[in-house]
Each structure stands twice: as structure tokens, then as C-alpha cells.
Write a structure and sequence with these properties.
The structure holds two protein chains of two kinds.
Chain A lengths: L1 H31 L6 H18 L2 H28 L3 H23 L15 E5 L2 E4 H23 L1 H11 L1 H6 L4 H26 L6 H16 L4 H20 L4 H7 L11 H4 L3 H4 L3 H12 L11
Antiparallel strand pairs in A: 1-2
Helix pairs in contact in A: 1-5, 1-8, 1-9, 1-10, 2-3, 2-4, 2-8, 2-9, 3-4, 3-8, 5-6, 5-8, 6-8, 9-10, 9-14
Chain B lengths: L1 H18 L5 E2 L14 E8 L6 H20 L6 E8 L4 H13 L4 E4 L3 H17 L6 E4 L16 E3 L4 H13 L6 E7 L2 H17 L4 E8 L8 H10 L3 E4 L4 H12 L6 E4 L7 H5 L7 E5 L7 H14 L7 H16 L4 H8 L3 E4 L2 E5 L6 E2 L2 E8 L13 E9 L1 H4 L12
Helix pairs in contact in B: 2-11, 3-4, 5-6, 11-12
């Protein structure tokens, strides 16, 4: 029970960070139909900018400034690059974001170097939040969860309860109609893309110092957030939320399970020995394959439920 | 045409940047030492990571190689001038082979590498093939930190010389120390899932079963190398297992993040026995919270004093960084001694002399064992504690240090080899 509770907390907090990361991606996809390959790069940029700003002004200003800067950059990219290739269809859009991810990766290495930067958790958030069964739960993880939940509520409120949200929804489904009613549709698109990028930047500010801020951070989360978006259902915010929590928990709990196929076969009365064909595969423990489980999940979802857990589109 | 050329140039530049060649650096020789080979330049190619999670470790070691090249260029028995060429191998065996090929094409005859036994095995293989096919252009490989015992056993090679102590030797010393700690009852093993980590786990189990059969192994985990960001799930598992001691061969970010997660979770009553507590980033992660409960086994520690102490102090003054890889010193001491005795910088002659050679380095008189080219050297077990007057060196300005608790002579840590060395006839 004790272990279960701690693992659940770890899993949920990791899952919420994944959600912060993937919400921007799924928003941009559902609203603009653009699969943004540079999304994880915005996450990385958020972490690096937060590092620089926090060196200069401290963590709290960085928490606000870094996502804003990343958002501005995203908006600028939409206005000057993405908008121009929009008329050529989806493949050029995809390719241009793909190119952007490489440019950002190299730029970050040129500016901040190839190794990790020393981006620290602010002193106010050091130490444990509470102690459960003798295990401390770090305050910073609690902060991470709080920010993610606030973010979810804010996005949902903005999209469904405000005038801007209504205009955005209208512009995305019926752009001509919204335009003839006097709304500036291209600006709405720019806003959505910038907003999505800012969300990734915010995740970077939070995730960068919780783990490590280094040039490889985009590549490592890049693949997982696509899994989240696909599993949750392309373009479904609630689906992304569910999938993030699910993947966070699956990864955390898988680490704890030491059973293997060999053990399962043994329970069924069939002894697997080192001479058995494919012994290396039989003796693999679930904890060892934990890192690849999300991708297994991705493949299974695509085969059995292509539209994702809560998706509405047919795959 | 001009436009096409411009495109090609731009393309090449982009390719270079993405492959990481842009990071190749050369240490300019300054003063020259006196000796029989005065004025001869020995190019040493360093193939280790300068990008990715382990870049911090690689950068520090490249700096150590460049810094000590300058040091030995002022004074070495052969009188040669060392020149270091650093190439990023991205911690990948495949990239390492590409890098090896390219530095051989540049005429380099000495190669050094240390991070990752996978990459080391690739070099051993690549060098053996090259030397067989290109007589007269042989290349020699000094391994300064890749510690998989297989490299001097089943995979042993005449052209490979290891100056670090291998996993089995360090585990021999570490378990000799643990044997005398009665409060150790339950041990948890957590290691990186590749050659080195698997070997640490294997030798820990073997040695403990032999020396302390009453100790229970309550966990044995392997996680991916340089991939895991969040170690909290592993810490929860260690806690749940009731372990009082953890043995880990983790290094770089894998150790820093593990210790950080342990500190965050308040895992205060568990001792960590490590191989690489002094590597870049780890001292900061250890901090005050780890005092008295993190041990390290190595061929040196921060407070060695003497010549290496002065070198480390100078390094710190120059770079505000810590020179923790003492095997770099071994490398130069061994090569220059070998060259002086061979009266040549030709790897064929130097290799023949270095086999079985005894030479002096900072931790005493060492022997490069002839049977398997594994350096025999004494080992230290040290503990993380507050820096004081006796042990003043504090890495990463942390205020703490590794203080020696036990010294083991070479013979204690020496392990047998199954190497059937094939020597060139």
C-alpha cells in the first residue's frame, strides 16, 4: 500500500508534466491541423530561456517571461513561415516544423553549449512538501502538479467560457464565416500557435530544473509526447490529459515489476532454462522494458483503436 | 556555378555541425621537454562524448588530457611533445568507429578513450583490423576508463592497454571493505543496462556470496544508459525493498540524478557504494544530504597530495573545474616512459616495451600486466564528508570531499585473467 501510494504520486506528477508538454501540441493540431514537429524544441527553449532569465532576475520572473518569449517566437514563426506554406498543404507544413526543430537544436547548442546547464530549483521550493510512510514527497513535484492543473483549467476556461475562445473555435471550423463577420482569422491562427508554443515553454521552465536542461532534452520527450497525443486521440485535450496520466503511471509502475515471461512460464509448469531458445527474451524483466512500454502502447492503440482513447476523428 | 558551389559549401557546413566535427580541438604545444626523442610530436586522438547527457564528463576529461599534455610536455623522460585531438563520439560505438577511421586518416597513431565499454570494444576491434591490414602504420589504444573486464579477458587485444582498474578489481576492493561492515544486511543493485553495469551487478553478487554469504540481495535493476530523467520510481522501489545499502556502477547524470532523487525522497538511512562519485555534476548532487553515506572505490581520491595534488590545484585554478580522472596522468606517465625505453614513438616498439613494464605514477609503482595489458594498481575506498583541514579539497566548491577510509595494495584488488593474447609475430 505504502509503495503503491508513493508510486502513484510519482506517476501522476510525471504524467502531469507530460500533459503540460502535449497539451500545446494537441491544441495546435486540433485547431490548425498542423502536426508540429518542433514542439519539443519549444520545450527545450523554454528551459534554456528560463535558465538564462533566472540567472539574471530569479526563478519567478522566469516562470512568466520564458513562456512569453517562447510564445512570441512561436507566433513569429507562424506569421512569417508557417502561414506562407499553409496554402501548399499539410506536407510542407510538417516539413517546415521539422526543419525548425533542427535549427533550434543547433541554435541552442551554439548559444548554451553542448553540455547540461546548471538550472536549479528555486530555494523556496527545496525540501519536502509532506512525508508519507517515511518517504518525503518533494515540494517541487507538488508545484509541478499544481501548475499543470492550473494550466488545464485555464485552457479549458479560455476556450469554452470566453469570447476569445468562441472566436477561436469559430475561426477554426468556419474560417470564411468568421472572417466575413469581421474577425481577423490569420491573427487567430497566430495566437493559437503562439499559445501552444508558450505552453511547451512553460513545461520547459518547470521540467528543465526538475530533471536536466541539456540539448538532448527535446529528443527524449519528443517521441513520448507524440505517443500521448496519439493514444489520447489526435486533437482531444481531455484525451491528452488521460493519456499523459496513464503513460506516467504505466512507466512508473512498470519499473517496480520484476516479473518476466520466464516467471510466467514457470508458474504454468514450464521451466525455462538458459538452454531454452530465446532465453535472453524470456528472462527480460518488465522493469527493464519499462522505457519502451509507451511505444508498445502506441502501436497497440493504432491497431485496435486508431482514433485514440477520446478522439473523435476516425483514423 | 558559383551558386552551386555555395550550396555545397553550406551543405558541408551543416553536415559538419550536425556530425559534431566542429568540436574537434587541438592543444597547442608550448614548451618542450628534454629527452632522447626531443622535438618529436606524438598526436593523441581522444574519442569520447562532447554532446548529450555525458558531455559534461567528456569536456572535463578532454580538458584534463590537454592540460596534462602541457604538463608532460614540460617534463617527460622521452622528451616528446604530446598533442591532443578531441573528437566527439556521441557515446555511440558506431560514431566511435567513424571517428577512429578519420583520425587514423589524419596520421594519428595513439588513440585514447574511456566513456563506455561498448565504444572501447569497437575501438579494440577497429584497431586490430587496421593494424593487421596496414603493417607499418599500427595504432595503439590506451583505455583510460572503460572498465568492462571482458576487454582484458575474452576480448583482450595486444594493442589495447587499460590504465583504469576494471570492474572486477574495484568490486574486489569494495566488497573487501563491505565485508567488515556488520550493519550491511540487505543490498540493492542498480546499474546501467550495458556491458559495465551488467558486470558490476554480476561481480557484486559473486563477491558478496563469497565474502559475506549472509548478505541478502534484495534488488537487481538495470536501467537504460543516459536516458532516465526521473529516478523517483527506482528510489520508491529501493525504499520498498528494505535495503540498507545500494551498490551502483552508475556514472555521470545517471548517478547525479539517482542521488538527487534519493535525497529528495529523504532516503537517509541507505548507504550508497559507488564507482564514480567524483565525476562532473555528482559532487553538486551529493551535497550535504549525502554526507557520511556515499562511498566510492577508485584508484585515487581528491586529497592525494604530492605531484597530482599540485596538478589538481593548478587545474582548478585555471578552469575552476576538478581534474578527477587520474588515469589521464597514468596514460602520459606510461606512454612517455615506454617511449623513452623504446627510444622510439613507433607504437609497435612502444607496445612491446610497455608489456609488463613497471612505471611510477601518483599512486605508487604500477605494473602493466603482460598477460592481459591490465594495469595493476592500488585502490582506495573513500567516503563523502565535510571538507576539513586534513582533507581540504572540495570538488565543485561543494564544501564536501571524498576522504579515504581504506587503502588496498595492488595484490588485494588483483583479479585473474583468461586472456589468450595473440601477439604479432
Amino acid at each position: 500500500m505504502e509503495f503503491f501510494t508513493i508510486s502513484l504520486l510519482n506517476g501522476v506528477s510525471y504524467g502531469l508534466l507530460l500533459f503540460m508538454l502535449s497539451s500545446g501540441l494537441t491544441l495546435i493540431f486540433s485547431m490548425m491541423g498542423v502536426l508540429n514537429f518542433a514542439h519539443a524544441s519549444f520545450y527545450m527553449l523554454g528551459a534554456y530561456l528560463a535558465y538564462s532569465v533566472s540567472e539574471w532576475l530569479g526563478f519567478w520572473p522566469a516562470l512568466v517571461l520564458a513562456p512569453l518569449l517562447v510564445g512570441l517566437l512561436g507566433a513569429g514563426f507562424e506569421k512569417f513561415c508557417l502561414r506562407r506554406v499553409h496554402k501548399f498543404g499539410h506536407v510542407p507544413e510538417l516539413l517546415i516544423t521539422f526543419g525548425l526543430s533542427y535549427i533550434l537544436h543547433e541554435l541552442v547548442q551554439l548559444v548554451w553549449g553542448r553540455s547540461a546547464v546548471n538550472y536549479q530549483i528555486p530555494p523556496a521550493l527545496h525540501g519536502p512538501l509532506f512525508t508519507l510512510y517515511g518517504t518525503q514527497f518533494p515540494a517541487y513535484r507538488g508545484f509541478m502538479m499544481l501548475v499543470a492543473v492550473l494550466m488545464l483549467v485555464a485552457i479549458w476556461g479560455l476556450l469554452t467560457r470566453t469570447r476569445i475562445g468562441l472566436v477561436i473555435q469559430a475561426a477554426l471550423t468556419h474560417p470564411e464565416m468568421a472572417e466575413s463577420l469581421g474577425h481577423n482569422v490569420p491573427r487567430v491562427f497566430m495566437l493559437v500557435f503562439g499559445g501552444g508554443a508558450a505552453l511547451a515553454g512553460l513545461a520547459g521552465v518547470i521540467g528543465g530544473n526538475a530533471f536536466v536542461t541539456e540539448p538532448g532534452m527535446a529528443a527524449t520527450v519528443g517521441s513520448v509526447i507524440f505517443v500521448v497525443v496519439v493514444v489520447g486521440g489526435m486533437g482531444s485535450l481531455a484525451g491528452a490529459f488521460l493519456a499523459s496520466l496513464l503513460i506516467g503511471c504505466v512507466q512508473t509502475f512498470a519499473v517496480a515489476i520484476d516479473s518476466s515471461l520466464m516467471g510466467a512460464a514457470g508458474a504454468l509448469g514450464w521451466q525455462v532454462t538458459p538452454e531454452t531458445f530465446g532465453y535472453a527474451l524470456w528472462k527480460l524483466k518488465i522493469s527493464q522494458v519499462a522505457p519502451i512500454l509507451p511505444y508498445l502502447f502506441l502501436v497497440l492503440i493504432l491497431i485496435f483503436r486508431p482514433k485514440g482513447l477520446l478522439g473523435t476523428r476516425e483514423g | 556555378m558559383a551558386l552551386a558551389l555555395k550550396h555545397i559549401v553550406a551543405g558541408v557546413c551543416i553536415a559538419c555541425a550536425s556530425i559534431g566535427w566542429a568540436t574537434a580541438q587541438t592543444a597547442a604545444p608550448t614548451a618542450t621537454a628534454a629527452g632522447p626523442l626531443k622535438g618529436e610530436v606524438v598526436k593523441i586522438a581522444w574519442l569520447d562524448p562532447l554532446s548529450g547527457l555525458m558531455a559534461g564528463v567528456g569536456q572535463n576529461q578532454l580538458k584534463s588530457f590537454q592540460f596534462l599534455a602541457e604538463y608532460f610536455n614540460r617534463k617527460n623522460p622521452a622528451g616528446v611533445t604530446f598533442e591532443v585531438i578531441g573528437v566527439d563520439n556521441k557515446l555511440s560505438p558506431q560514431e566511435t568507429l567513424n571517428a577512429l577511421k578519420s583520425v587514423i586518416d589524419q596520421g594519428v597513431r595513439y588513440v585514447v578513450q574511456g566513456n563506455g565499454s561498448g565504444a572501447a570494444a569497437a575501438i579494440i576491434d577497429g584497431v586490430a583490423k587496421h593494424n593487421e591490414r596496414n603493417p607499418g602504420k599500427e595504432v595503439l589504444f590506451v583505455n583510460y576508463a572503460a572498465v568492462d573486464p571482458d576487454l582484458t579477458n575474452s576480448k583482450c587485444s595486444y594493442w589495447h592497454f587499460r590504465v583504469d582498474a576494471d570492474t572486477s578489481m574495484k568490486m574486489e576492493a569494495l566488497t573487501s571493505y563491505m565485508k567488515d561492515q556488520p550493519d550491511i544486511k540487505k543490498v540493492y543493485l542498480i546499474n546501467q543496462n550495458y556491458a559495465h553495469g551488467v558486470q558490476v551487478s554480476k561481480f557484486a553478487k559473486e563477491n558478496l556470496a563469497r565474502k559475506r554469504p549472509d548478505i541478502q540481495i534484495v534488488g537487481d535493476d538495470l536501467h537504460p544508459l543516459a536516458q532516465v530523467r526521473d529516478f523517483a520510481p527506482y528510489i520508491a522501489k529501493i525504499k520498498a525493498s528494505g535495503a540498507d545499502t545500494v551498490i551502483t556502477g552508475n556514472w555521470g547524470s545517471d548517478l547525479s540524478l539517482l542521488i538527487r532523487a534519493a535525497n529528495d525522497a529523504g532516503l537517509n538511512n541507505v548507504k550508497f557504494y559507488t564507482y564514480y562519485g567524483s565525476v562532473t555534476g555528482t559532487p553538486t548532487a551529493l551535497g550535504a544530504a549525502a554526507a557520511g553515506r556515499v562511498y566510492q572505490v577508485a584508484y585515487s581520491h581528491y586529497n592525494m597530495g604530492g605531484e597530482i595534488g599540485a596538478v589538481m590545484a593548478e587545474f582548478k585554478k585555471k578552469f575552476n573545474d576538478d581534474m578527477y580522472t587520474g588515469a589521464v596522468f597514468h596514460t602520459y606517465a606510461m606512454l612517455s616512459e615506454g617511449m623513452a625505453r623504446a627510444k622510439s614513438t613507433d607504437p609497435v616498439k612502444v607496445a612491446a616495451v610497455m608489456e609488463g613494464m613497471k612505471f611510477k605514477s601518483f599512486n605508487g609503482e604500477l605494473e602493466m600486466r603482460k598477460t592481459d595489458h591490465q594495469l595493476q594498481q592500488p585502490l582506495y575506498v573513500s567516503v563523502w564528508q565535510k571538507a576539513d583541514a586534513k582533507y581540504p579539497y572540495d570538488p565543485e566548491n561543494s564544501g564536501y570531499t571524498f576522504a579515504p577510509v581504506k587503502f588496498y595494495e595492488s595484490y588485494v584488488a588483483s583479479t585473474p585473467t583468461s586472456c589468450q593474447m595473440k601477439r604479432p609475430s
